[in-house]
Structure formats: structure tokens, C-alpha cells
Amino acid sequence: MAPRGHHLTEVALLASASADLAAAGAGEREGWLDDPAVLPSLGPRARALAVASAARSVLVIVPVAGGGGGGVTVEPALGPEEGRISAVEWVPLTAEEHGEGEDGVVVVVGTDTGWLLFYSLAGDLLHKQSIYPAKILKLNYRERKENAWEDSGSDELSIVFPGVIARFDGADLQRILQKSFQDVKSRLWKDKFEEEDAADEGSFGRIHFQIWNVSKFGSCADAAIVGLMPPPLLELQSSQRHYCAITVGEDAVVSAYRLSEDRSRSLVGAILSRGVAATFSTISSLSKILWRSEPSPPKKSRPKPQSFAKTSPLTCLKDSPRKGERLILSPSGTLAAITDSLGRILLLDTHALVAVRLWKGYRDASCLFVEMLLNKDKASSSSMHIEYTKRDYCLCLAIHAPRKGIIEVWKMRTGSRILTIPCPKGSRILQPSARLSSSFSYAPLEVYLFNGDSGQLSVLNSHLG
Ligand SMILES: *[C@@H]1O[C@H](CO)[C@@H](O)[C@H](O)[C@H]1NC(C)=O
């Protein structure tokens, strides 16, 4: 690891992976990473980088270690029905059997017609599912294990559409993906024909999910599920789960909703879809053998969209002509940083649903929460082997302001700016979707900087000074 300035440490130089990254547009022109249709996403523990290109319809996965050689380029089979890639995210597989192995992660791609495609690091299609016929604006995997002593909900993958939000429970996701992982391994002997056929949704099960209409105050540009929330007063007896969702968008800068889980659906739906899926795949594999010479398998129609579960609007903050653009949640979900069309950044307390802070003059900014070591005493007296706990870290917000060419770090909630560092053009700030903390050492929330032109991937040092 080479030092770079005081505040960034180089993790890898991915230029040597340019043959792989070039498939996603790297090196074609300066500032290729500024293209909003280029979607970078950093894997758990920053071990791999995925870059998708909507225009080229490719997904490139490069390992970060070893200079980024040995990447995989996937060209998802996207017909007119599946549309173009519009979002990318990483999902860690948590089963013991995967242990520390590099196999324990999956990359999920969302499309602008509402399909999800899950890939292994080797580029095998593990799962494909139609969610809702609209553009997937964001995929977000969240770990919810931090508050193990209270029910903070389970890990989840949320899928944001304009005015609609869907949620996969981590456990449902794990079950199907683990199984596909094993299936793919045992299917290696199969020929090309069958591989292609397997890309039909009918041959995969359906992962159960919940979906809500959150467009009461207008469609949204971004949204997030903040966490669990108490049931409404008259329903205290019910064991149904409720989530709080925050949306940002054109008509209402910020709105909040209570999302209620549709219990009946989760039971009946799960049983039905599993039964049907099993029968269906048996039939389809039989027909595969019988109709081998057929040039294209019969096209199955896209499943009907699932009906919405109950949503209750909680509040909305209108501030025309300001439009909410992007929303980033703090790890516990108690704070959200919201950027808007007038170059402002709003810090929202998501429990009280009040704005606690406002920054101005940050057009096109992107924000990420980060944990910094501010406990100077411990830091300065430290030997190499000191173990830091969560309490040693202070939650901060990193703001990348591309027009100013800087990254700033501000202490939460009301603290001062503790850092300003220059940031070259054509760079993006990234954060692994999962930290995978072990019980032995605390893994702080980190922010990485990927310079698309130089290929340099750096991490923001959590130590100040
Ligand atoms: C979602 O809800 C809004 C009003 O709350 C309604 O106007 C709209 O038609 C609904 N969308 C769908 C797809 O049902």
C-alpha cells in the first residue's frame, strides 16, 4: 500500500485490468467514469469492483487484489423485454460453507424494464426475476445486524422504481441464491444450448418479495427503507411488520411512508410459487430433451406484476422548485443525506422526520457516510496492534463535490468540517455494500475513491492527522 497524500491510501491500481474494464468503456476517453450510464459498485471488503455500462450492455467484474487482472466480462442476455442495465449492487452470501472464500458474493443487475439478474463472480447467471414493469433506479443491499439486541429487522435488498419500492428479505434471497450456486456448479457439464435455455425465468424459482406504491405525493427519484417502525395505534396487537420508507423527488422534496408487510401473501405466495416453479422446471427440462432441434424455445410471457401491499403516508416536505435527487442512509438508518436540484444537501433525522442541517453550494454532489477515528489520545499513544471498537469512531458525512473538485468530511450531526481533500476529475466515491464485521474486530464504514482515468482505487484513511 503506497501512501498518497495524508488522507488517501492506494489500495490497488486497476489500470492493468484495463482489458476487462475497457469493455465497460474505460480508457475510451478521459472522464469516462463521469458518464451516468456507467455504474460502478464496490464489493464486500472492497475485494472486487463491478462496473456496468448501460450503453454497452455489459457487466465487468474485476478483483481488486493482484492489480485487477483476471476479471470477468458478462454480456447479459437482454432482449427488448429486459431492457438496459440501470442499476448494480453486490449481495454477500453468508453461509458458513463459503467462509472467507471469494465465492460468497453475488452481483445483481437491475434493468430499466424492472428485471433483476444475479451473477456469480465467475459470470454465471444464478437467478433472474421480473419485479415490476418500470425502470430500476437503485438497488441497495443493507446489513441490519448492528443492533443485535433489538429487532432492527433483517438484511435486505431494496429495489427502487419511480414511485414504487420493493424489498427482498435477506434470508429469502440467501436460500435461492445458495441453491442456484450449487446448481450452477453441478451443471458445468451441460452444453451451451441448455445454458442459454436456463436463462428463461421459468427455470428459476421466484424469490418472494414485498412491493409498495409510494407515489401518494408524486413519483420519486430515489428512496430507501429506513428500518422497522412501530405499528399504527389501532393495530398494536398485530404481529405484522412495518417499515418506514423515505422518498425524494420532484413534487415533494422528502416524503415518508409506513410500509406494511402483506402477511397473507408471504405465506400463500411462497408455497404457491415454490410448487409451481418445481413442476414447471421439470416440464421444461423434459421438453428441452424432446425439442433439442427447435431453433428457439417457446417464449413464456412475463409474469403479471405482484399487487401492492399497504402503504400509509406519514409526512411530506414540499419545497418547490427544489427537487430531491439522491438519498443516502447512515448505517443505523437514523440519518439521511439528501441532495437536491439546487445544489443543497439536507441532513434528515429519519425518526423525528425533521431536517437537522443544510449545506448549500454543492451541485451534483454525492454523499456517503463514513466513520473516522477522532479519539486522538488513543490514536497517538497507539502501538500497531491496538483494537478499535465502534465507540472509537465518529460518524461523518463525506461529500464529493465534483464541480469544486474536492471531497469534504463533516462530523455528524452538527460538528465541523474536519477534512477537505482535492479530488481529480473522472473520479467517484464508492462504498462496499456490506462490511462483514467479525466478532473479533470492528470494521469501520469506509469511503473509497476510484479514479477512472488512472485506475487508482484509494481508501480514505480513518485516522486523522
Ligand atoms: C399508486 O398510488 C397513487 C396514489 O396514491 C395512484 O395515483 C397510482 O395510480 C398508484 N399506482 C399504481 C401503479 O397503482
Automatic annotation (TrEMBL):
Key words, A-Z: Signal
Signal sequence residues: 1-24
Location of the Rab3-GAP regulatory subunit N-terminal domain: 32-430
InterPro entries assigned: Rab3GAP2 (IPR026059), RAB3GAP_N (IPR032839)
Location of the region described as Disordered in the Swiss-Prot/TrEMBL record: 293-314
Cross-referenced PANTHER family: RAB3 GTPASE-ACTIVATING PROTEIN NON-CATALYTIC SUBUNIT (PTHR12472:SF0), RAB3-GAP REGULATORY DOMAIN (PTHR12472)
Record-given protein name: Rab3-GAP regulatory subunit N-terminal domain-containing protein
Species name: Urochloa decumbens
